[in-house]
């Protein structure tokens, strides 16, 4: 029996995501979360590097999330999504509060070698190198993951503690079937950068896993999950660019 490939040679549609999971400092994670969103049971950070077709062309991206719960639901709070496609950045922020910003990304697999680099404002803030070491048998079960974004708009003119749209949590629920997973023996290096302050605010204390993941996304629902306290949120309103890293008038502190 011959099985047809899931994608043609050179087609990016079937590219797996590079999924990195590391342990960080629980107090530092808590400091990054706005009041009302609480740290998850483990101080874990999930970094995903990918290439997917968006609007008829490939989009390279890097997403960074920390384990966090809202209203008793376990999930991940998104700190930033660096992508190389400008058209998707601002419309995503305006519609759903996605923390997107422009980023240059190199990501490839050559044989069993996997490499990735992420650069923003001239700083290469993340590097990964590894070798595929094995595979994980798929369970055939669907998995639903929840992610939290924040949507808000401060008042025109910059009046203190005033909003045109007060902060709300956006809940993103994605149901996927994981088709193929390969493990990687590799090294994650986070570099100093004022624009992406991982080493300062979200250090890598231990790389827990590195995988290449191919998934079939079956459903995705984006909903307004409810408001946050606008006064308590105010110190978190000023961020670096379109991310949720704490900033000063849109730039690094």
List the helices and strands and how they pair.
Layout: E1 17-23, H1 26-32, E2 37-39, E3 44-54, E4 57-70, E5 73-83, H2 87-96, E6 100-102, E7 104-110, E8 113-120, E9 123-136, E10 142-154, E11 163-190, H3 198-201, E12 206-227, H4 230-233, E13 247-248, E14 251-252
Parallel strand pairs: 5-6, 5-10
Antiparallel strand pairs: 1-3, 1-12, 2-4, 3-4, 4-5, 7-8, 8-9, 9-11, 10-11, 11-12, 13-14
Q: What can you tell me about this protein's structure?
A:
- The protein is mostly beta strands and 253 residues long.
- The protein has a single domain, classed as Acetoacetate decarboxylase-like.
- The protein has helices spanning 26-32, 87-96, 198-201, 230-233, and strands spanning 17-23, 37-39, 44-54, 57-70, 73-83, 100-102, 104-110, 113-120, 123-136, 142-154, 163-190, 206-227, 247-248, 251-252.
- The strands form 2 sheets. A 7-stranded mixed beta barrel has the order 1-3-4-5-10-11-12.
- It is globular and about 55 Å long.
Task: Please give a quick description of this structure.
With 253 residues, the protein is mainly beta. The chain contains four helices and 14 strands.
- Inertia-based shape: globular
CATH topology: Acetoacetate decarboxylase-like
What is the CATH homology-level superfamily? Acetoacetate decarboxylase-like
The SSE order reads EHEEEEHEEEEEEHEHEE
Instruction: Write down the domain tally.
Output: 1
Report the count of strand segments: 14
The CATH class is Mainly Beta
Strand content: over 45%
> From the coordinates shown, what is the CATH architecture?
Beta Barrel
What percent of the residues sit in helical stretches (DSSP H or I)? under 10%
Question: How would you write the strand order of the largest sheet?
Answer: 1-3-4-5-10-11-12
Mean pLDDT over all positions: 94
| Sheet/helix structural class | mainly beta
C-alpha-based Rg, rounded: 18 Å
